[in-house]
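Chapter summary example: a protein plus magnesium ion.
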Amino acid sequence: MNASKIMIVDDEPFTRIDLKEMLEESGYKVVGEGKNGEEAIEKARTLQPDLIIMDVKMPVMNGLKASSIIKSFSNCAILLLTAFSHREVVEDAKKADINAYLVKPVKERELLPAVEIALSQRRLFLSLQDKVGHLEQKITDRKTIERAKGILMQQLNCTEEQAYRRMQKESMTHHIPMIKLAEKVIQQTSE
Ligand SMILES: [Mg+2]
């Protein structure tokens, strides 16, 4: 768990040093650092961290803008650092899909639980994304099989059940998954 890759982005060098020390002492791997939003985007692409700890107020590009751009291409978690707990920042943070935020100065006893929560949220998100992906695939496969069944019903002038049994038998005899068989049936008719 502690092998998670973390990136620190803050325009104040001392904040970066402090954070790095606290994280490394707890066994986390700090894979990169940045001092503004642009660097954050660039390094998020190349280093692919699991979590970015990002300051809000930075020159060149602020942390909120960088976060929403990073979230468009990366599934990393983002923990925002703010100087004040402004309501506005919280609202913007929600829009930028921020996982958590901390108010500066960051204390170790607050940082570590926030890091763990952000990382576990990310893991949960990834596993849900994976499940959704599988379900979508299943639905697509089911539609393909239904279509192939319809074609066979017409070709063989048989009932739905007979068409399905036929496909099942073919699938078992030739060790071809149902979905592959269905794709073949569809392909043959469109040729
Ligand atoms: Mg700053």
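Key point: The first strand starts at residue 5 and ends at 9.
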